[in-house]
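Good morning C.,

I know you're traveling, so I'll keep this short. The sequence:
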Amino acid sequence: MDNPVTDNALSNLQKDIASRSGGDLRREDFTPERIDAYRAFMAAQGHTVSFLSPEEREASRQAFLTDHVPGEDLWLFGYGSLMWNPAVETLGAERASIDGFSRAFALTLAFGRGTPDRPGLMLVLLEGQGCTGLAHRIPADKVDSETQVLWLREMLSGAYRPVWQEMRFADRRSQRGLVFVANAGHPRVEANLPFETIAQRVALAEGALGTNRDYLYKCEAIMAEHNIADPMITQLARRVREICAGEP
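The tokens, ready to paste straight into the viewer:
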């Protein structure tokens, strides 16, 4: 039986995507109704994805927040699109570094900036030497509402896992905060892909929200703006531009 609520949400989603430029996510993208519409949209595109149930997502969120001190702000570490497009209420962002994890284009993407036939790749954090990004400060009175949004954004399929991690700031302060790292055993996580495979996929993948390479270029731009160096991003952006220019 058709679900008029989901069908209406799907229709609105399709119209929204068709009119959207730039591909950035919005806060209103992360509601239970929108998530149902995303699932229907992906099914219509020929892609079946396994989502966590609402109960599983909420259990994960509550388990994480068990270690949060009530009344304190929550720091959120961004290393990909969370750097320029957190889509949650914050008091601002600061450059910060963490140990033990490094950026990698290792999360396969068949929706948004890819398709089932030509999947793209998004950034995740894999075990590594360290990573510098932007830490967003979520005010204490918004922690509950904003983590609900974040879990709808980052924890749909279980490809990430939320961890507490120490963040170091430029003024030598340190602060524990929320970091979404790769769930290494998840089928969407493709660790250790060859560099050229990554470059080809990022250069050529495109979906309803735009090109995969635009995601890479936005990451490169925000990192340059905040003087964040990552040789992998620099080298990959250079190679992707070569591929798009027809260079072997």
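Safe travels,
E.
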